[in-house]
Amino acid sequence: MREFDLLIVDIQDVGLRFYTYYITMCRLMDACAEHGREVLVLDRPNPNGHYVDGPILNMKYKSGVGWLPIPVVHGMTLGELARMVNGEGWLPQGRRCKLTVIPCANYTHATLYKLPVPPSPNLRNMKGVYLYPSICYFEATPVSLGRGTPLPFQVYGHPNMVGYDFSFTPQSVEGAKNPPQLGKRCYGVDLSGMEDEEIWRRGVDLSYVIDAYRNLNLGDHFFRPFFELLIGVDYVRPMIKAGKSAEEIKARWKGDVEKFKKQRKPYLLYPEE
């Protein structure tokens, strides 16, 4: 820390609580706050920055995939989020770092920004980026979400799912050396042809997880504890097990969304429309 005066953050985020680049930024901000160093964020557009959805993280589930009390889709750029972290005193012991954000030009939260380069090996295109807020929860189940196929985060399936015409077989590939259900033929659903507008309209959509849960009929063996770390609250799993619909569950976190929109407003750098 003695060898530099200024730490520059320049990385492409996708605007989700469990997409962990922002956690690295927060930890670096904390280290800089502790050692009197300045942070400069070169801001970038958020490809999921046009909406807010999902429950606010219950901090008892704080982890490496959820570090701040924010919704699943927070709709902020990293620069805006850094300002909020400082302003809300979210760094450990309420520390604040010296922060400068260089904003994007010609960007608003209504801008539908398409990434020129994939942000990570398994988010290969915009369809995966848009479906990610609804598909990632399969990481906490036995169901494959397409790692090891040409369509990661755009399909889901399991060898024992029945009633589906679509199938795929995960293989060991670069970025997914040992994917779930490796070498097994999985039956399920291909979402890659869904229109972007329909994905945006649905927002965080738990209907895919609910579909697989009901189809496999595994009861308590379907969900792993990692599910709560991803969804961030304790009420979603019981509601799914009780037979509630995706719409009923979404209604439960509507208040979180409205609360967060008001809370984040002082830290926004770009118009919301």
UniProtKB/TrEMBL annotation:
Domain Peptidoglycan beta-N-acetylmuramidase NamZ C-terminal, chain residue ranges per copy: 130-270
GO molecular function annotation: peptidoglycan beta-N-acetylmuramidase activity
Protein name: YzbB
Pfam families in the cross-refs: NamZ_C, NamZ_N
Organism: Bacteroides pyogenes JCM 6292
InterPro entries linked to this entry: NamZ (IPR008302), NamZ_C (IPR048503), NamZ_N (IPR048502)
Database matches in PANTHER family: HYPOTHETICAL 460 KDA PROTEIN IN FEUA-SIGW INTERGENIC REGION [PRECURSOR], PEPTIDOGLYCAN BETA-N-ACETYLMURAMIDASE NAMZ
Domain Peptidoglycan beta-N-acetylmuramidase NamZ N-terminal: 2-126
